């Protein structure tokens, strides 16, 4: 079972990422659950709590942090990156960092759209790869 933790802030982007991630997991007959939280910062504590359940073989964290007019972008990016990195380094469950950090909405959309870069599919592919790789150790 794979957990997908999706931030609902910037949902016009995170919904696209989730859709392509879910589509690929369905194609691969993979079981998953989707969990939503308000923003990218909350994905860290949500992921930590999911790790503690020992129910998931991988966690895919989906978010979109888009630069605005204040320094808030820098702090959110730093917190989320460090938080997910720490969880990844201190646990054996692979956590896939599916948080876009872009300078504007156009760049975020380019990465999220199914007919463009389709990063959501890449997140799912990476999760399945890591689950397989770790099970073969």
Description of the structure:
This protein has five helices and four strands, in the order E-H-E-H-E-H-E-H-H. With 137 residues, it is α/β, with parallel strands linked by helices. The protein has a single domain, classed as 3-Layer(aba) Sandwich (Rossmann fold), CATH 3.40.50.960. Strand 3 (58-66), helix 3 and strand 4 form a beta-alpha-beta unit.
Figure out the total of helices: 5
CATH architecture group name: 3-Layer(aba) Sandwich
Radius of gyration: 14 Å
pLDDT < 50 stretches: none
For the biggest β-sheet, the strand order reads 2-1-3-4
Overview in brief:
This protein is of the alpha/beta class. It has helices at 11-27, 40-53, 72-90, 105-112, 119-135; strands spanning 2-7, 32-37, 58-66, 95-102.
Write the layout of secondary structure elements.
Blueprint: E1 2-7, H1 11-27, E2 32-37, H2 40-53, E3 58-66, H3 72-90, E4 95-102, H4 105-112, H5 119-135
Parallel strand pairs: 1-2, 1-3, 3-4
Helix pairs in contact: 1-4, 1-5, 2-3
């Amino acid at each position: 079972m794979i957990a997908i933790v999706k931030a609902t802030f910037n949902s016009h982007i995170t919904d696209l990422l989730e859709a392509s991630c879910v589509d690929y997991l369905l194609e691969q007959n993979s079981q998953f659950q989707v969990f939503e939280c308000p923003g990218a910062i909350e994905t860290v504590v949500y992921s930590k709590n999911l790790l503690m359940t020992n129910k998931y073989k991988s966690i895919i964290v989906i978010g979109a942090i888009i630069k605005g007019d204040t320094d808030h972008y820098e702090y959110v990016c730093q917190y989320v990156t460090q938080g997910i990195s720490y969880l990844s380094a201190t646990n054996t469950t692979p956590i896939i960092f599916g948080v876009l950090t872009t300078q504007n909405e156009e760049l975020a959309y380019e990465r999220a759209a199914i007919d463009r870069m389709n990063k959501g599919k890449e997140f799912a592919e990476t999760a399945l790869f890591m689950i397989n790789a770790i099970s073969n150790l």
